[in-house]
Amino acid sequence: MKREPEAFLKEEIKNIYDSNLNWVIRHLEASSKPHSVVDGKNVLMLNTNNYLGLATHPKVMQASIDATKKYGAGAGAVPVIAGTFNLTKEFQEKFAKFKEVEASILCQTGYAVNSGVIPQLIGKDDVVISDQLNHGSIIDGVRLTSAKRLVYKHCDVTDLGVQLKEADKSGARRILIITDGVFSMDGDIAPLDEISKFAEEYGAMVFVDDCHGEGVLGEGRGIVAHFKLQGKVHVEGGSMSKGFGVFGGTVAGSKDLIEYITNKSRTYLLSTAHPPGLVAACIAAVDVVENEPEHVKKLWDHTNYFKKEVQEMGFNTGNSQTPIIPLIVGDPGKAQKLGELLFTEESIYVTPIVFPMVAKELSRIRVQMNALLSKEDLNNALGAIERIGKKLDII
Ligand SMILES: *Cc1c(COP(=O)(O)O)cnc(C)c1O
């Protein structure tokens, strides 16, 4: 048999395009903030995770520049081989205080947290119970374990109870409940208070991935602060790349947990540490969230206004409770078209979200609010969304 090593690529790519499931990568020629330049066009960006605008906050940018000048551009090695910067130690102590827990660790990314930490918390004698709509990086982390996997219906604590009973009966050594804090495609919030109560009853460990809750919930401190559960949630995973506007993954929790991760997480052990400029920017971003509450307040004012307006137009925003506002259309082709026309005709940059991010029949565009938007921006965006929504017979 004569093999054609790359023949499958063309075929697979054709399939992706034929089913309208292809991603379009656009190119930013300015910052990732509401007023930006994308593919040569001045646009209003409504799809950045930089909720508070901290990516271009002068203090955050300056911290990055100063640290780069002082320490250079790169870290040189993984932390356990050639050390980490005193900046990293400063960040981790500051972040633990910010989260009101004993300790924290700065990891490469939120993805690296999930793929590196989850497999170290559970093994073959254990059970992991995961929300049905958890982020793909959690799913990947869970795939790396040999634990028994149970799934509960999205945010459904009654079903979680059923799964916990089953895990308990099976004689599991450990039980890990894992959930997104804010669900990134729907913008709804996990019922962490009830999850935590249930976990206590069964002696289960709770892991919340709060990548989209940070900078948003609990005055920017995240979902644990939102529910006042500090010290009760065992593993709080997060990302510096979203509301904080910078880059990196975090875990906050007990001293023992952080010590364990430092020694065991394979992504922490095997991937190079943050460059110093990034670490300094992370410190500054946390500082800004603590000391300038106006950004979080603005984000929520915009969220409440915008959501009410699109709902009144007749859009289905699902269960959104946060600045993530999906406009659920159904058909993937229609969602792609909505995104495309908003971009080409109205200069609004929003992203169609299709399979595998969401189920095919729940295709949508996802709008994300931002503290840097003005009332005028919001009204312009609303007008454009209404025009294109009508044109495509969505509303
Ligand atoms: C974005 C996201 C991640 C990945 O975080 P990165 O720092 O971008 O790697 C993980 N989990 C959730 C829930 C996310 O939304």
Please, could you describe this protein's structure?
- With 395 residues, the chain is an alpha/beta fold.
- The chain folds into 2 domains: 26-56 and 293-391, Aspartate Aminotransferase, domain 1 (Alpha-Beta Complex); 58-291, 3-Layer(aba) Sandwich (Aspartate Aminotransferase, domain 2), CATH 3.40.640.
- Helices cover 44% and strands 16% of the residues.
- It is built from 15 helices and 13 strands.
- It has helices at residues 7-18, 58-71, 79-82, 86-99, 110-121, 136-143, 157-169, 192-202, 223-226, 255-264, 266-270, 276-291, 294-313, 332-346, 375-391; strands at residues 35-38, 41-45, 103-107, 127-131, 148-152, 175-180, 205-209, 235-239, 249-253, 324-330, 348-349, 351-353, 363-368.
- The strands form 3 sheets. Strands 3-9-8-7-6-4-5 form a 7-stranded mixed sheet, with helices on both faces. A 3-stranded mixed sheet has the order 1-2-11. It has a 3-stranded antiparallel sheet with strand order 10-13-12, covered by helices on one side.
- Helix 6 links the parallel strand 4 (127-131) and strand 5.
- The longest helix is centred in the C-terminal third of the chain and has 20 residues, at 294-313.
- The mean pLDDT is 96.
- Pyridoxal-5'-phosphate (PLP) binds at residues 109-111, 114, 135, 137, 180, 184, 209, 211-212, 239, 241, 249.
Largest sheet: 7 strands, mixed
Strand and helix order: HEEHHHEHEHEHEHEHEEHHHHEHEEEH
CATH class of the largest domain: Alpha Beta
Give the number of DSSP strands.
13
Question: Strand share of the residues?
Answer: 15-25%
Q: Please give the CATH architecture of the largest domain.
A: 3-Layer(aba) Sandwich
Radius of gyration: 22 Å
How far is it from the N-terminal to the C-terminal residue, by CA?
A: 55 Å
**Molecular shape:** globular
* Helix proportion: 40-55%
CATH topology of the largest domain: Aspartate Aminotransferase, domain 2
- Mean model confidence by pLDDT: 96
| CATH homologous superfamily caption of the largest domain | Type I PLP-dependent aspartate aminotransferase-like (Major domain)
- SSE class: alpha/beta
Strands ordered across the widest β-sheet: 3-9-8-7-6-4-5
Helix count from the secondary structure assignment: 15
